[in-house]
Design goal:
The protein has helices at about 1-20, 80-90, 100-110, 120-125, 140-150, 170-190; strands at about 30-35, 40-45, 60-65, 70, 95-100, 130, 155, 160-165. By secondary structure, the protein is of the alpha+beta class. Strand 6, helix 5 (about 140-150) and strand 7 (about 155) form a beta-alpha-beta unit. The chain starts with a helix and ends in an 11-residue tail after the last helix.
């Protein structure tokens, strides 16, 4: 049963990375994703330095909460400290996905936060903070994200990308896709004129 769950999670992580790459939310070597393993103090995480659009389940690496490799021949993602910090800080979070979503990240570069341009944004993304830049793969980045994502679906990393969490990798992926959709709406609307927001009293 436990092995079946691990196999399923490996396949789901591979599927998530393929979707992210196919939809232009990461480059070939960019992004990462992970899933908590039930009844183990360990996670599954995508590898470093591999083309993310065509991973295989056996490419996924198992690491403990200190980042030590338990199973796998490849190097785990450089963002291992980010993922493990989130899992240690928030026991209710079971999946983490990190993308380099161009429109969501681009808005953050300009200081534009996610706004209620549609009902989904108004309900799901009331508070998506833009976090100050910290070096990728650093302990400081992991601590900053872990502190700010506990009760949120996602955060945006200044000059870097998006981190989303959920019960499953696919749930976190859906959050990233929805954020990018909203960001494109804001970008297009701001190019042509004033961005019309849903009134707060109607939310």
């Amino acid at each position: 049963m436990v092995q079946d769950i691990e196999t399923s999670l490996r396949e789901e992580l591979v599927r998530c990375m393929k979707i992210l790459h196919n939809r232009g939310l990461i480059s070939g070597l960019g992004g990462n994703a992970s899933a908590r393993l039930p009844r183990e103090k360990a996670i599954l995480i995508t590898p470093s330095g591999r083309f993310k659009g065509d991973l295989a389940p056996e490419d996924i690496v198992k690491i403990d909460m200190d980042g030590r490799v338990l199973e796998g021949c490849l190097r785990p993602s450089i963002e291992g400290p980010l993922h493990t910090a989130i899992y240690r800080s928030s026991p209710h979070i079971n999946a983490v996905v990190h993308s380099h979503s161009p429109f969501t990240t681009g808005l953050a570069l300009a200081g534009r936060k996610i706004e209620p341009v549609n009902y989904e944004a108004a309900v799901l993304f009331k508070d998506v903070p833009i976090l100050e830049f910290r070096p990728p793969g650093s302990k400081e980045l992991g601590e900053l994200v872990a502190e700010n994502i506990r009760n949120r679906r996602a955060v945006v990393l200044q000059n870097h990308g998006v981190v989303a969490v959920g019960a499953t990798p696919l749930e976190a992926l859906c959050t990233i896709e929805s954020l990018e959709e909203v960001s494109i709406m804001i970008f297009v609307a701001s190019h042509f004129g004033e961005v019309k927001l849903i009134p707060r009293d109607l939310i």
